[in-house]
Amino acid sequence: MPLVLVRTVTGLEGLAAEEVAAAGHRVVGVSKRQLVVDATAELIDTPPRLADDLFVVRAAVSDPGHLKSGLVSAGDALRRVLSVARQDSYAVTASFDGSRNFNRYDVEDLIGTVLGGPYHSRRDGSTPPADRSEWRVVLDGKTMWVAVRPYDVPLHRRAWRQRTVVGSLHPPVAAAMARLAGLAAGQRVLDPFCGAGTVLLEARAVQPGATYLGSDLSSAAIAAARANSAAVRWQVGDAARLTGSVDRILTNPPWGVRIGIDDLTPYQRQWRRVLQPDGLVVAILNHEQAAQLAADPGWRVRGVYDVAVAGRHPRIVVATRHPLSVGPGGRPRPGAG
Length: 337
Description:
Elements: E1 4-7, H1 13-22, E2 26-31, E3 34-38, H2 41-45, E4 53-62, H3 68-81, E5 90-96, H4 104-115, E6 133-139, E7 143-148, H5 171-180, E8 188-191, H6 198-206, E9 211-216, H7 219-228, E10 233-236, E11 246-251, H8 265-274, E12 275-285, H9 287-295, E13 299-306, E14 315-321
Parallel strand pairs: 5-6, 8-9, 8-11, 9-10, 11-12
Antiparallel strand pairs: 1-3, 1-4, 2-3, 4-7, 6-7, 12-14, 13-14
Helix pairs in contact: 3-4, 5-6
């Protein structure tokens, strides 16, 4: 099988490579937002959940450099190695690293010329027809990759996602949180800011044997979550008044951008109170919230992952309860926050 390009969210390249390798495929290259994978057909049938998208490589030549003359030479090289059957309709999306004396539309139009046939340029802002095939060109500084998507839609568009709410998380990022949580069958998993359910539904796809509870103060959010899946228990509830006991907390609290919350400390206290002593919190936070959690003596931060999503740069924080932060009966010890 040809090589495959796995496109990722910035910051998730390493975790995505781990997921791909764990599935038995060989990662032969890692660069910003991309893995190059020597894969079997199984990767196409069962793609990685952390992938933003996936493309099958049809040709690869040397990166043309920063000059337009190099781009022209790359086009000549591609004509010698790239052979495709005539297509009904197709579009091309290009990206590259570094400063160039050409833009992405120059690259896309070049590939459109090389491929021939009914190519739909994006240069004038027009939208290609929905039934097109989608080609991807990536210039990573070493190689010019030309690849085609083997699916009708990008991988990040989940079939379960019928409804969203303000602040809904990008599904591959939620899948990364689920992977970091080390989920196991029989565990109780809570999201106290569940919104439309993205985090828990991605977690359930990773580990269907756990029990999931999503809670949100917004009845509209809970309605959206129920529309997305009836396989998880959803309820209207206050994240500042949690009950019960859980093994994992996976959550995406508001970052204070489109939805605001006050100080995160009261919520951290609630997380610590309901979390089992060997439990784990995986939360995606803004930088201030992440620093606040790290400074809280009731928690031990086990990992921090900076990502880029929705034009923002939040942090996925993995934390455990400090072993001395909770006294008998779940009462916080003095000084535990």
